[in-house]
Write a structure and sequence with these properties.
The chain is of the alpha/beta class. It has one domain: 2,3-Dihydroxybiphenyl 1,2-Dioxygenase, domain 1 (Roll), CATH 3.10.180.10. It has 2 helices and 8 strands, in the order E-H-E-E-E-E-H-E-E-E. It has helices at residues 17-28, 79-88; strands at residues 9-13, 33-37, 40-44, 54-59, 72-75, 92-99, 106-111, 117-122. Helix 1 (17-28) runs antiparallel to helix 2. The N and C termini lie far apart (36 Å). The relative contact order is 0.23.
Length: 124
């Protein structure tokens, strides 16, 4: 039996990989690594020291940005400054910083430069 890690990989669709990469590098303050994969272009998020757990921005004709559907949450140290940078980089806050029950931390959601709904989570 496999020991699953959730998530193992995620992809956030983009129509303009340069624009999306600039947006995410700007709001997260970290570089993304470009990787070609055949005709598909990726900009890979850092794994944060967790082997086999990462994700990427993807430009592919069959993957289109959307606000509906699955929501990927990115873990950050403090989501408040990241949310501030979302607006400064052309995104919109969809759900403001919201406390979770108990000591589960905080979450928020934003619309990125491509029109995707993406979530943030932080302990503080």
């Amino acid at each position: 039996m496999l020991n699953p890690t959730v998530p193992a990989w995620f992809e956030i669709p983009t129509l303009d990989l340069d624009r999306a990469q600039t947006f995410y590098e700007g709001i997260l303050g970290t570089p993304l690594r470009r990787e070609p994969m055949g005709e598909t272009e990726l900009a890979v998020f850092p794994s944060g020291g967790k082997p086999h757990v990462s994700g990427a921005l993807i430009r592919h004709s069959e993957c289109l940005p959307a606000v509906q559907g699955s929501i990927v949450y990115l873990s950050v140290d403090n989501l408040t400054p990241v949310l501030d940078r979302v607006v400064a980089h052309g995104g919109d806050t969809l759900v403001p910083r919201t406390g979770l029950p108990g000591d589960m931390g905080y979450f928020a959601q934003f619309r990125d430069s491509e029109g995707n709904r993406v979530g943030l989570w932080s302990a503080v």
